[in-house]
Amino acid sequence: MNTRFRGTSIRVQAEGPGGFALTFAAERLDRQLDRLTGRAEPRWAPDPGRAALAFVSDDRVIVRRKHCRLNVFDPVGATAAMDRMDFDAHLFTDAETGEDAVVYWAGPLGVRMARQRQMRPPVTATRRPLTMNPRPTRDFTEAEAITRLCAHGLPFLFFTDPSDRRGRLLYRRYDGDLGLVAGTDVSIE
Q1: What is the pLDDT, as a whole number, of residue 38?
Q2: Cis preceding-peptide flag for 42 (omega within 30 of 0)
Q3: Residue 151 lies in a domain
Q4: pLDDT tens-digit profile of 121-155?
């Protein structure tokens, strides 16, 4: 479900048997609104009520492509956007380095960040600690990224496309197929 609250886009995703999916979505929306209005602390941990879409499969097709100008954020802003849009990972441009980067829900501190090339933690202080991915982002073609995600049962894969050196976020959808978000200099949706 996509909606707006006080001029801000928000979204919730939930799955469940029969009418329970609607109940789960309503509960998720209530928690999101509590965080947006300041009645609850910002989220800084994976949601234990929702399992990651991670399973080994044959290669699947990309059924949703989004080519867009990425928002420029620090890790806190990117994490807030990830929570507001109910994503498991969020592709953005890192305000500190100008690199394409991703934040995602992962332990041990709740949020992990990966940049294309720089692995050092952000210089700017965050309100909460985060874990940095200790390796540079790998270069993959789309076909290579699909094979890696599906063969290893990953819920998403952040990679650099060798043709334009931009970051890509390949992710598994609830229907089992794949979606791709690609950073560009102009929005092409």
Answers
A1: 73
A2: no
A3: yes
A4: 888 756 677 889 988 899 999 999 999 999 999 99
Residues 21 and 72 in one domain: no
CA atoms within 13 A on the CB side of 174: 9
Q: What is the pLDDT of residues 77-95, one digit of tens each?
A: 999 899 888 889 999 999 9
Regarding whether 173 and 82 lie in a shared domain, the answer is: yes
CA–CA distance, 71 with 83 (Å, rounded to integer): 15
Write out the two tokens for 1. 């479900």
Phi/psi at 67 (nearest 5 deg)?
A: -105, 120
* Longest Cα–Cα distance in the chain: 47
Within a domain: residue 106? yes
**Cβ atoms of residues 46 and 110 within 8 Å:** yes
Helix H or strand E segment including 17 = none
Q: Is the whole-model pTM more than 0.85? A: no
Q: Is 22 left (phi over 0), alpha (psi -120 to 50) or beta?
A: alpha
| 80 & 145 share domain | yes
31 φ, ψ to 5°? Answer: -65, -40
Backbone angles phi, psi at 83, to 5 degrees: -70, -45
Element (H, E) at 127: none
Judge contact between 169 and 154, C-beta under 8 A.
no
**170 vs 110, higher pLDDT:** 170
Domain containing residue 9: 2-36
